[in-house]
Amino acid sequence: MIAQGRISVNGKIIRxxxxxxxxxxxxxCVDGDRISLxxxxxxxxxxxxxxxxxxxxxxxxxxxxTVMSLVEQVGTRVYPVGRLDADxxxxxxxxxxxDFAYRLTHPRFHVPRTYRxxxxxxxxxxxxxxxxxxxxxxxxxxxxxxxxxLDYDEATRSTLLEITLTEGRNRQIRxxxxxxxxxxxxxxxxxxxxxxxxxxxxxxxxxxRPQEVxxxxxxxxxPKPLPPRRGKHSQ
Length: 235
Hints:
CATH superfamily of the largest domain: Pseudouridine synthase
Radius of gyration: 23 Å
CATH topology of the largest domain: Pseudouridine synthase
Number of helices: 4
Largest sheet: 9 strands, mixed
Protein backbone atom coordinates (compact mmCIF):
# COMPACT_ATOMS: atom_id res chain seq x y z
CA MET A 1 0.00 0.00 0.00
CA ILE A 2 1.09 3.59 -0.56
CA ALA A 3 1.03 4.35 3.20
CA GLN A 4 3.81 1.81 3.72
CA GLY A 5 6.22 3.53 1.31
CA ARG A 6 8.21 6.74 1.45
CA ILE A 7 5.99 9.41 -0.09
CA SER A 8 7.17 12.65 -1.66
CA VAL A 9 5.19 15.46 -3.30
CA ASN A 10 7.10 17.66 -5.74
CA GLY A 11 10.36 16.31 -4.31
CA LYS A 12 9.46 16.97 -0.66
CA ILE A 13 9.13 14.02 1.74
CA ILE A 14 5.68 13.92 3.35
CA ARG A 15 5.49 12.68 6.94
CA UNK A 16 2.09 13.96 8.07
CA UNK A 17 -1.30 12.61 7.01
CA UNK A 18 -4.09 14.44 5.20
CA UNK A 19 -1.91 16.36 2.72
CA UNK A 20 -3.88 17.97 -0.13
CA UNK A 21 -2.66 17.08 -3.63
CA UNK A 22 -3.48 18.69 -6.97
CA UNK A 23 -3.63 15.71 -9.37
CA UNK A 24 -3.19 18.00 -12.40
CA UNK A 25 0.01 19.70 -11.25
CA UNK A 26 1.66 17.82 -8.36
CA UNK A 27 4.25 15.06 -8.83
CA UNK A 28 3.81 12.27 -6.29
CA CYS A 29 6.40 9.51 -5.81
CA VAL A 30 6.44 6.41 -3.61
CA ASP A 31 9.92 5.10 -2.83
CA GLY A 32 11.20 7.24 -5.70
CA ASP A 33 8.75 5.91 -8.29
CA ARG A 34 6.22 8.37 -9.72
CA ILE A 35 2.59 7.30 -9.52
CA SER A 36 -0.24 8.35 -11.80
CA LEU A 37 -2.91 10.49 -10.17
CA UNK A 38 -5.19 10.87 -13.16
CA UNK A 39 -8.04 8.52 -13.95
CA UNK A 40 -7.69 7.11 -17.48
CA UNK A 41 -10.32 8.53 -19.81
CA UNK A 42 -12.21 6.07 -21.97
CA UNK A 43 -11.94 7.27 -25.52
CA UNK A 44 -15.12 7.59 -27.55
CA UNK A 45 -15.26 7.64 -31.36
CA UNK A 46 -18.47 8.58 -33.18
CA UNK A 47 -19.59 8.91 -36.78
CA UNK A 48 -22.44 11.36 -37.43
CA UNK A 49 -24.36 12.00 -40.62
CA UNK A 50 -24.60 15.78 -40.30
CA UNK A 51 -27.67 17.32 -41.92
CA UNK A 52 -27.57 20.62 -43.78
CA UNK A 53 -28.23 23.64 -41.59
CA UNK A 54 -26.44 22.17 -38.57
CA UNK A 55 -23.29 24.02 -37.46
CA UNK A 56 -20.06 22.15 -36.67
CA UNK A 57 -19.22 23.89 -33.43
CA UNK A 58 -19.15 23.07 -29.73
CA UNK A 59 -20.72 26.35 -28.68
CA UNK A 60 -22.06 29.26 -30.71
CA UNK A 61 -24.85 31.52 -29.41
CA UNK A 62 -25.62 32.55 -33.00
CA UNK A 63 -25.98 28.99 -34.31
CA UNK A 64 -29.58 27.76 -34.12
CA UNK A 65 -28.54 24.08 -34.16
CA THR A 66 -25.09 22.58 -33.53
CA VAL A 67 -23.77 19.04 -33.92
CA MET A 68 -23.46 18.81 -30.13
CA SER A 69 -27.26 18.80 -29.82
CA LEU A 70 -27.33 15.65 -31.97
CA VAL A 71 -24.98 13.66 -29.70
CA GLU A 72 -26.23 14.74 -26.26
CA GLN A 73 -27.23 11.18 -25.37
CA VAL A 74 -23.62 9.96 -25.67
CA GLY A 75 -23.04 10.98 -22.05
CA THR A 76 -19.38 11.90 -22.67
CA ARG A 77 -17.92 15.20 -23.82
CA VAL A 78 -16.77 14.83 -27.43
CA TYR A 79 -15.54 17.29 -30.04
CA PRO A 80 -15.84 17.45 -33.84
CA VAL A 81 -12.86 16.20 -35.84
CA GLY A 82 -12.37 19.10 -38.24
CA ARG A 83 -15.53 20.69 -39.52
CA LEU A 84 -18.22 20.73 -42.19
CA ASP A 85 -19.87 23.99 -43.20
CA ALA A 86 -23.46 24.51 -42.12
CA ASP A 87 -24.60 24.09 -45.74
CA UNK A 88 -22.54 20.91 -46.24
CA UNK A 89 -23.95 17.56 -45.17
CA UNK A 90 -22.42 14.16 -44.53
CA UNK A 91 -19.87 12.22 -42.54
CA UNK A 92 -18.47 13.96 -39.47
CA UNK A 93 -16.35 12.30 -36.78
CA UNK A 94 -16.47 13.28 -33.10
CA UNK A 95 -14.14 12.10 -30.33
CA UNK A 96 -12.48 12.94 -27.02
CA UNK A 97 -9.14 11.56 -28.25
CA UNK A 98 -7.03 14.63 -29.07
CA ASP A 99 -4.14 12.78 -30.73
CA PHE A 100 -6.59 10.85 -32.94
CA ALA A 101 -8.28 14.09 -34.02
CA TYR A 102 -4.94 15.77 -34.75
CA ARG A 103 -3.74 12.94 -36.99
CA LEU A 104 -6.97 12.85 -38.95
CA THR A 105 -7.19 16.59 -39.59
CA HIS A 106 -3.58 17.67 -40.17
CA PRO A 107 -2.71 17.59 -43.90
CA ARG A 108 0.73 16.05 -43.19
CA PHE A 109 -0.99 12.71 -42.57
CA HIS A 110 -2.84 12.70 -45.93
CA VAL A 111 -6.04 11.02 -44.69
CA PRO A 112 -8.43 10.99 -47.69
CA ARG A 113 -11.92 12.47 -47.53
CA THR A 114 -14.37 12.05 -50.40
CA TYR A 115 -17.17 14.47 -51.28
CA ARG A 116 -20.08 14.15 -53.68
CA UNK A 117 -20.33 17.47 -55.48
CA UNK A 118 -23.12 18.87 -57.61
CA UNK A 119 -21.57 21.72 -59.56
CA UNK A 120 -23.17 24.32 -61.82
CA UNK A 121 -22.73 23.74 -65.54
CA UNK A 122 -20.94 21.04 -67.47
CA UNK A 123 -17.50 20.20 -66.08
CA UNK A 124 -15.41 19.29 -69.10
CA UNK A 125 -12.17 17.34 -69.37
CA UNK A 126 -9.92 20.40 -69.13
CA UNK A 127 -11.56 21.64 -65.93
CA UNK A 128 -11.54 18.12 -64.47
CA UNK A 129 -7.80 17.88 -65.10
CA UNK A 130 -7.27 21.20 -63.30
CA UNK A 131 -9.27 20.00 -60.31
CA UNK A 132 -7.36 16.73 -60.16
CA UNK A 133 -4.00 18.40 -60.58
CA UNK A 134 -3.83 21.69 -58.72
CA UNK A 135 -6.02 24.76 -58.38
CA UNK A 136 -4.56 28.09 -57.29
CA UNK A 137 -6.45 29.50 -54.30
CA UNK A 138 -5.77 32.65 -52.29
CA UNK A 139 -3.73 30.60 -49.79
CA UNK A 140 -1.72 28.73 -52.42
CA UNK A 141 -2.10 25.79 -54.81
CA UNK A 142 -4.09 22.75 -53.78
CA UNK A 143 -2.57 19.30 -53.52
CA UNK A 144 -3.56 16.75 -56.21
CA UNK A 145 -7.10 15.46 -55.75
CA UNK A 146 -8.92 12.34 -56.84
CA UNK A 147 -11.78 13.06 -59.23
CA UNK A 148 -14.53 10.84 -60.57
CA UNK A 149 -17.14 11.98 -63.08
CA LEU A 150 -20.60 10.58 -62.23
CA ASP A 151 -23.27 12.29 -64.32
CA TYR A 152 -24.53 15.43 -66.04
CA ASP A 153 -28.12 16.52 -65.38
CA GLU A 154 -29.45 18.35 -68.41
CA ALA A 155 -32.58 19.48 -66.57
CA THR A 156 -30.66 21.33 -63.87
CA ARG A 157 -27.53 21.92 -65.98
CA SER A 158 -25.29 20.55 -63.26
CA THR A 159 -22.47 17.99 -63.08
CA LEU A 160 -22.21 15.35 -60.39
CA LEU A 161 -18.65 14.55 -59.30
CA GLU A 162 -16.79 12.76 -56.53
CA ILE A 163 -13.70 14.62 -55.30
CA THR A 164 -11.20 13.12 -52.85
CA LEU A 165 -8.93 15.43 -50.84
CA THR A 166 -6.02 14.69 -48.54
CA GLU A 167 -5.86 18.21 -47.08
CA GLY A 168 -8.54 20.10 -45.21
CA ARG A 169 -8.48 23.81 -45.93
CA ASN A 170 -11.38 26.02 -45.03
CA ARG A 171 -14.25 25.56 -47.56
CA GLN A 172 -11.75 23.99 -49.96
CA ILE A 173 -14.14 22.20 -52.32
CA ARG A 174 -16.33 25.28 -52.66
CA UNK A 175 -13.34 27.51 -53.32
CA UNK A 176 -11.89 25.08 -55.85
CA UNK A 177 -15.14 24.90 -57.80
CA UNK A 178 -15.58 28.66 -57.66
CA UNK A 179 -12.04 29.08 -58.98
CA UNK A 180 -12.88 27.00 -62.09
CA UNK A 181 -16.21 28.83 -62.60
CA UNK A 182 -18.43 25.89 -61.59
CA UNK A 183 -19.82 26.87 -58.17
CA UNK A 184 -21.14 24.19 -55.83
CA UNK A 185 -24.88 23.64 -55.72
CA UNK A 186 -24.81 20.73 -53.30
CA UNK A 187 -22.03 19.14 -51.25
CA UNK A 188 -21.97 15.95 -49.15
CA UNK A 189 -18.98 14.23 -47.53
CA UNK A 190 -19.54 10.55 -48.21
CA UNK A 191 -16.37 9.00 -46.80
CA UNK A 192 -13.52 9.68 -44.36
CA UNK A 193 -10.52 7.39 -44.59
CA UNK A 194 -11.85 3.84 -44.44
CA UNK A 195 -15.33 4.93 -43.31
CA UNK A 196 -18.41 5.48 -45.46
CA UNK A 197 -21.86 6.77 -44.50
CA UNK A 198 -23.57 3.56 -45.58
CA UNK A 199 -27.18 3.49 -44.36
CA UNK A 200 -26.64 5.99 -41.53
CA UNK A 201 -29.60 8.37 -41.70
CA UNK A 202 -29.13 12.16 -41.58
CA UNK A 203 -29.06 13.41 -37.98
CA UNK A 204 -28.11 10.03 -36.52
CA UNK A 205 -24.78 8.67 -35.26
CA UNK A 206 -23.10 5.44 -34.26
CA UNK A 207 -19.97 4.47 -32.36
CA UNK A 208 -17.01 3.29 -34.40
CA ARG A 209 -16.00 -0.32 -33.99
CA PRO A 210 -12.51 -0.94 -32.54
CA GLN A 211 -11.32 -2.30 -35.88
CA GLU A 212 -12.49 0.87 -37.65
CA VAL A 213 -10.58 3.04 -35.17
CA UNK A 214 -7.40 1.00 -35.64
CA UNK A 215 -7.72 1.16 -39.42
CA UNK A 216 -8.05 4.94 -39.26
CA UNK A 217 -4.99 5.21 -37.01
CA UNK A 218 -3.00 2.98 -39.35
CA UNK A 219 -4.17 5.00 -42.33
CA UNK A 220 -2.81 8.20 -40.76
CA UNK A 221 0.55 6.48 -40.19
CA UNK A 222 3.61 8.72 -40.28
CA PRO A 223 3.49 12.40 -41.30
CA LYS A 224 4.40 13.21 -44.90
CA PRO A 225 5.95 16.38 -46.35
CA LEU A 226 3.72 19.21 -47.54
CA PRO A 227 4.22 21.26 -50.70
CA PRO A 228 5.06 24.94 -50.11
CA ARG A 229 2.02 27.14 -49.76
CA ARG A 230 1.26 30.75 -49.04
CA GLY A 231 -1.05 31.85 -46.29
CA LYS A 232 -2.37 30.25 -43.13
CA HIS A 233 -3.72 26.71 -42.99
CA SER A 234 -7.28 26.33 -41.74
CA GLN A 235 -9.05 23.08 -40.94
